[in-house]
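Fold it.
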Amino acid sequence: MSYSSDSHKQLDLLTTNGKSAHHPFFGASSGYGSSDDDLKEDTPNYLILTGNTQTLPGSSPSYDAENSFSEETSIPVSSQSAIWEYDPTSKNFSAWWVNADGSSVKPRILWSNQGDTMFVLTQSPAMFRETFGVEAPEVTFTCVQPVVAPV
């Protein structure tokens, strides 16, 4: 992984082994069960992690940005790619979503492992779990050194 030491926020993560070369950035898209594109403490709104086309850092949700979910389902949802923050000390990644009004929120990452197995981001984990009837434990994304197989 490479990044500028000047900024650890609003990073784009470029994938090298994604499902589609049309969506090379690892970003997020508004959840199809959400009432709008905003993440707030008082709603179960959520994002799903998707392959995306690139969006500008700090930009609000965009329907112009293409994403893998919309390509697979023909359901239009908004996306952002430059959502990641990297902490070089812990080697952890956090997400930052820009709401439609320009406010930034730091959602929690959940593993929604019932039915549709996927990672979701939400501001209200308890409300998400209750609304959608899933367990969805909170997880952390960490950058680790690649393992080299012995020769």
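Residues 25-142 form one domain.
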